[in-house]
Write a structure and sequence with these properties.
Low-confidence stretches of chain A: none
Helix content of chain B: 25-40%
Strand order of the largest sheet of chain A: 10-7-6-18-29
Number of helices of chain B: 13
Structural class of chain B: alpha/beta
CATH class of the largest domain in chain A: Alpha Beta
Largest sheet of chain B: 6 strands, mixed
Low-confidence stretches of chain B: none
Shape of chain A: globular
Radius of gyration of chain B: 20 Å
Number of domains of chain A: 5
Order of helices and strands of chain B: HEEEHEHEEEHEHHHHHHHHH
Structural class of chain A: alpha/beta
Oligomer: heterodimer
Helix content of chain A: 25-40%
Distance between the termini of chain B: 50 Å
CATH topology of the largest domain in chain A: FAD/NAD(P)-binding domain
Radius of gyration of chain A: 30 Å
Number of domains of chain B: 2
């Protein structure tokens, strides 16, 4: 019989205010094998840990139960304490009486009863615990950044500066991301390209950074410190070594009908193209869905004019396999589709989104920065912005969250118009104006007070395109009146959402995502840039809406965490891995099919678990029909013992 | 048909292309033929509407033996064969399968014909052989029902009961169980080397000895263990000496799996991953889809 010590934490009043900790101690004392039970205000403190260490010695404990907060919080703390006392750290079990009891129960009686039950379950489990010994695994000192926007570029630069090689995988032909499309940036109104392009060039030139543009993640294997990742470099049909970036090819390309992704479809591009003038790398790609040569075999004009002979029509996709110690997801965002928002008449050329406005007002944009209506090319007499299109929308068609950047970029847009064209009237419909951030509220007030932008509290119910102008059926809530506002151009502050492909990437990396497809952090406050999957880190909007200053700050934080991992030579592996009992295995191989890590091999009627690959998820253990597969530290017997203790 | 089968079996035994023949032989009465291996002569071999046994399961026993086995399989038996193949319990190259036609299996009571067909035959839709090397008399097989949902009628009736009635119904049935293990032995997917009920690694074995846990839980746990793998061959019910309608448990699982994961027939092929051991990003990872499924 084990000699078990039970330690109940008050967590100040966090637990003790709702749970009668003394009663929990008394109940624990009655359990078989419990030779010592005590409570303490803060078990995680040094004094609390010393109390456990002393008790192990004094009472000759062989198992420890700590009834406190979530094991995600302090399991490691208490395991380390047990190890100091000479116990195997895996002889410690945590029962979570804070998150699962005191925080969710208002009634002290219920909270106490449940705490006793959970403590009992942990005691029952400890009885079956066996010492476990972690192994070691190596760390490949190379990082992979998925996404080449400002988040990915900054993370890569910071890691590279620390001396580690970094690869950036970017799905489009150039790095730069959304920030490359922007005109000016709030709250200082400096030109986006002016501050971004030097970073793009730095990234391309850095000796530790390798760019894989026009590339996607194909396959992920392995785990923290030792990922093996296959990257698909899509055929560009242009030899990157030979191309000089002269641009003759796209000047001559006869196809001029493809909507330009970079210009938000406002103008057309050629079949061979670079997305924008400052693209990095400055090597065009051929859009195979548009190219006449690739579709019909005729044409080939670009090949004829290319003096360095860089056009390669028979180029194939290339697969690159590389090992990485850490992966950073920096996939960014898109604006949501406005399909379900028919009332805003987005199909009218004079109703545009915020990102389209960025291109329209950008000196490098399709109109050279000249603000015109796309329908009749006339200068608008008035422009109206509508906030929260699909943001803070609890109906199913929109997003429940605040997109965070729209209030500020709308203030910026409004200010830019009033600055350049003081004769144009500018209105903004808003629900609230949200401007937390350094110099943000000052910026917004400047737009309203100094630049004379009309802020109208209220929403627009319907936009009717009347040809000459647009009529906005709307409500001025402060004035308390319904109105039909006539305006020439409408800009919709469209909600942002994580790019669709993030789901696939997250699945490949087994990193979790929330209901809005944002990547989940390991802990919202204490581990905000780590995903719950070890070795996978988050940077930028993939984790939640944020502006450029926040993105760059987070990118630096992410890089610091990645560097912290890459400087290690070895990692301790989790000893809670699956193990198959050969005597019971009947070789059905169902486990090999459910294992997400490819850790189980089937060989001549029996399966073997590769301990280095197994992450201890337990999928195999529940799938195994004959109970041969078991998870160390979470064996079927241990779990059943817990259930029995709870049901007793 | 029986003569054709016998001739073929004798031919293959004599020319050495198979080491043994797995078929049915004459029992003590005409109405109770039994499964048998033939290694020299097949004089005693029979095939008629009393030949109920699903011979697929007997292939497991000769898997480790030398030589090839000629096995006769009715259409529904081939589903079990595939399922066993999928779980690596038998190998395809050790079997020569002759698919035989089936007109339905007759119900026998006190060694007398009752005039009825087995319940599974009345709702049978498995009229094609899923795996075979050759066919004999396959055209005698006929589709009994055009409505594949017929087999779920009994399940729907039980689903309509309230919780109390349902509990009473199953308690009544399970209390008849004498734990002879016939169902366990006859069931093709029930293939653990050591059953959890006999396994000291689980506390179930000990519980089974001292509480009513066993009679209540044995069949339910068994049904869970074969969920997604049961082909609905009906052997469990047929071999039960206490007439417990065990197939109803399995069929409830099949009905639910069809509703939750889309139509699935275990043993229809050997490639499709089982619905409970398969993970598809588009269909299984979306929380709202899982939520809507209930």
């Amino acid at each position: 019989m084990k000699r078990i010590g039970v330690f109940v934490c008050h967590c100040g009043t966090n637990i003790a205010a709702t749970v009668d900790v003394v009663k929990v101690v008394e109940a624990a004392k009655l359990e078989p094998g419990v030779v010592h039970a005590a409570e303490y205000p803060y078990l995680c403190s040094e004094a609390g840990q010393n109390m456990i260490i002393k008790a192990v010695d004094e009472f000759g404990l062989t198992g420890v139960v700590v009834s406190a907060c979530s094991p995600r919080m302090h399991e490691t703390t208490f395991r380390k304490a047990a190890a100091k006392a000479g116990l195997n750290p895996f002889m410690v079990e945590i029962s979570n009486i804070r998150e699962q009891c005191s925080w969710i129960h208002k009634d002290s009686k219920d909270g106490t009863e449940k705490s006793i039950i959970l403590t009992r379950a942990a005691i029952a489990k400890v009885h079956l615990n066996e010492p476990l010994h972690p192994g070691e695994s190596k760390v490949t000192k190379r990082a992979l950044v998925i996404g080449g926007g400002i988040a990915g570029i900054q993370t890569a630069l910071d890691i590279a500066e620390a001396g580690f090689p970094v690869d950036i995988v970017e799905s489009t032909p150039s790095i730069g991301g959304k920030m490359a499309q922007l005109d000016k940036t709030f709250p200082t109104l400096d030109c986006s390209a002016c501050i971004l392009t030097p970073k793009m060039v730095d990234a391309a030139a850095h000796e530790n950074i390798t760019l894989h543009t026009y590339s996607e993640i194909e396959k992920v294997e392995g785990f923290v410190g030792d990922f093996t990742i296959t990257i698909r470099k899509k055929a560009r049909y242009v030899d990157m070594k030979n191309c000089t970036g002269c641009g003759l090819c796209y000047e001559k390309c006869p196809v001029k009908k493809a909507p330009s992704e970079f210009e938000q479809g406002l103008i057309k591009r050629t079949a061979i193209y670079t997305p924008f003038a400052q693209a990095v790398p400055n090597v065009p790609v051929i859009d195979k869905t548009q190219c006449i040569k690739l579709k019909t075999g005729k044409c080939g004009l670009c090949e004829k004019v290319c003096t360095p002979k860089a056009i390669v029509f028979d180029q194939q996709d290339e697969l690159i396999t590389e090992k990485y110690g850490a992966v950073i997801i920096a996939t960014g965002y898109d604006q949501i589709s406005l399909e379900k928002f028919g009332e805003y008449s987005y199909n009218s050329p004079d109703v545009i989104t915020g990102l389209e406005f960025e291109r329209l007002t950008n000196a490098a944009g399709p109109t050279g920065g000249d603000l015109i209506r796309l329908s009749d090319k006339k200068k608008p007499r008035s422009v109206t912005f509508i906030q929260c299109i699909g943001s803070r929308d609890t109906s199913k068609r929109g997003k429940p969250y605040c997109s965070k950047i729209c209030c500020m970029y709308t203030a910026k847009h409004a200010m830019l118009i009033r600055d350049k064209y003081p004769q144009i009237e500018v209105n903004v419909f808003y629900i609230d104006v949200r401007t937390p951030g350094k110099n943000f509220d000052e910026f917004y007030r400047r737009s309203a007070e100094e630049y004379g932008v009309n802020y109208i509290k209220g929403q627009v119910g319907k936009i009717i395109d009347q040809g000459e102008f647009l009529t906005l059926q709307s409500v001025d809530m402060l004035g308390g009146k319904r109105m039909d506002l006539q305006t020439d151009l409408v800009v919709l502050a469209t909600a942002i959402e994580p790019v669709k492909s993030v789901r696939i990437i997250a699945s490949m990396l087994t990193a979790s995502i929330d209901t809005n497809n944002f990547m989940t952090e390991a802990h919202p406050k204490l581990k905000p840039v780590e995903s719950p999957t070890a070795g996978v880190f988050l940077s930028g909007v993939c984790q939640g809406p944020k502006d450029i200053p926040e993105t760059v700050a987070q990118a630096g934080a992410t890089a610091a965490k990645v560097i912290g991992l890459l400087v290690k030579d070895k990692l301790m592996t989790n000893p809670c891995t699956a193990e198959s009992n050969e005597k019971f295995c009947n070789g059905c191989s169902a486990c090999t099919k459910v294992c997400p890590y490819g850790a189980i091999a089937y060989d001549d009627g029996i399966v073997h678990v590769n301990k280095a690959l197994c992450q201890g998820c337990g999928a195999c253990a529940v799938t195994c029909p004959s109970g041969a597969m078991d998870l160390q530290g979470f064996s079927n017997r241990q779990l059943m013992a817990e259930v029995d203790a709870i049901c007793r | 048909m029986q003569e054709l089968m016998k001739a073929k079996a004798q031919e293959m035994l004599s020319n050495g292309s198979v080491t043994r023949v797995l078929a049915w032989k004459k029992g003590d009465f005409e109405t109770n033929p039994e499964p048998a291996f033939f290694t020299k002569h097949v004089d005693d071999m029979v095939y008629n509407q009393y030949c109920a046994t699903n011979l697929s399961n007997f292939m497991v026993g000769v898997e480790k033996e030398e030589g090839k086995t000629l096995v006769f399989l009715k259409p529904c038996d081939t589903f079990s064969f595939n399922q066993l193949l999928k779980e690596n319990r038998i190998s395809r190259d050790k079997a020569y399968i002759i698919g035989v036609g089936c007109e339905g299996v007759k119900v026998i009571d006190e060694m007398q014909e009752t005039g009825a067909l087995l319940e599974k035959c009345n709702v049978c839709t498995k009229i094609k052989h899923m795996v075979y090397d050759e066919l004999i008399g396959e055209d005698v097989t006929r589709r009994v029902t055009d409505d594949p949902l017929t087999r779920f009628k009994d399940i729907e009736a039980i689903e309509k009961m309230d919780a109390g009635e349902r509990f009473a119904f199953w308690q009544g049935e399970f209390s008849k169980c004498i734990r002879c293990n016939a169902c366990r032995n006859a069931c093709p997917p029930c293939g653990c080397k050591k059953c959890v009920f006999d396994n000291d690694n689980y506390d179930t074995a000990q519980k089974a000895n001292v509480t009513t846990f066993e009679e209540q839980m044995f069949h339910i746990i068994r049904a869970y263990h074969v969920a997604g793998r049961c082909t609905d061959c009906g052997e469990c019910t047929r071999v039960c000496p206490q007439d417990i309608p065990l197939h109803l448990l399995n069929r409830k699982f099949i009905k639910d799996i069809n509703a939750l994961y889309g139509e699935f027939q275990a043993g229809a092929d050997i490639e499709t991953l089982g619905p409970l051991t398969d993970f598809n990003i588009d269909q299984d990872a979306e929380p709202s889809i899982v939520y809507d499924r209930g």
